[in-house]
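Technical note accompanying the year-one report. For the benefit of new consortium partners, we illustrate the data format agreed upon in the data management plan: each record pairs a sequence with a structure-token string. No post-processing was applied to the example shown here.
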Amino acid sequence: MNDTITAISTALGIGAISIVRVSGEDAIDIVNEVFKGKNLSKVASHTIHYGHIIDNEEIVDEVLVSVMRAPKTFTTEDIVEINCHGGIATTNKVLELLLTKGCRLAEPGEFTKRAFLNGRIDLIEAEGVMDLINSKTEQASKLALNQVDGKVSNLIKKLRQEILEVLANIEVNIDYPEYEDIEQYTTDKLKDSIYDLKKSISRILNESKNGKLISEGIKVSIIGKPNVGKSSILNKLLGENKAIVTDVEGTTRDIVEGTINLDGLMLNIIDTAGIRETKDIVESIGVNKSIELIETSDLVLFVLNNNEELDKESIDILKKLHNKNYVVIVNKIDLPNKLDLKSIKTDNIVLMSAIENKGIEELKHLIKKIYNMEEINTQDMTYLTSARSISILRKALSSVKDIEKGLLDDMPIDILEIDLKNIWSLLGEIIGETYNDELIDQLFSQFCLGK
């Protein structure tokens, strides 16, 4: 933390501008050594200066240099950003010069890591930075900004404060029982507090399912027997001919993937091999993958042929889908009907003719309805999104339930206090009030270099 780090903060390649970022105690002095223009050690904070980066007397690039002095910076350290002309050779030369003058190459995410360690942001805000960089939709971007702005952190901090007040009341009653003017904190009062805490944590966890959907998208598998039109449906959803379509059964032997943005919801769609008994080794592997995907997918699109009767294989697949989110697509409605729709026990049915482009919009509308997209898009997106945070909050909810059980069993209030302190500590892990170094290193290693 005492050294000065540098990295290229923009994508490396051909472009109009590249930014090389420097952060640390010697940031301004080091850049000053290679900058021909104003003396950066004497300029005001948060100002931009025109000049050249030089290697001895040779001009490397014409640049604009931003100087930001501690503590009012992202890392709370002195930060200098060199705005170069875009290009691999020039940008790398500037970076190389800074390294020879005493900078160390930053690790992935190290600028954000320093911001966290220096108290500038908490862990939820740090994860929001990463989500903002990776966001692929407007909704995902809004969700990430709520994390970066601290709105999500404030939910957790509010819960911790409420727990702290309960703990304080318990401690006073335990330590000073002789004082008659102190209000006695009874188990009935603790029951009310625990009920409210459970309700708040459950609500956050329930709403965070929406956050995970928006930030990560949903995994959609197109399942069915060979030659029912799975690949055609994939191509229609994607708006491109990504999957090979023929009349030959078993054409799709491995998974084919694509992604679409459905009103802010990313659908990660997988076209699978047709499910049937086969002696072809390669096709058999594809069929096994298709069956496995039924279990791991968030949504299954099960395609049936309108021109065929429902057979045992299709009935078996329907049984596997019993506890899943799924849609039955009856394809090829342009052909004579032989399928008994009454035998399909679900309301999520779409009649489709992929070849005539019928039913695709109805399918999209049904998916949005299943995931309540209209409601999600109108809500304030203050959700937890990371698996780490959600997992910790589930542990906290489990401890809340342990306290509820303890209250029913008339356990002493000072014993229940131990679980309450554990919940307070777990919530602290979510925002980074308590952490271990391995977790921090692993989390920030997922960031891109230069952020």
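Partners are asked to follow this layout when depositing records. The longest helix spans residues 187-216.
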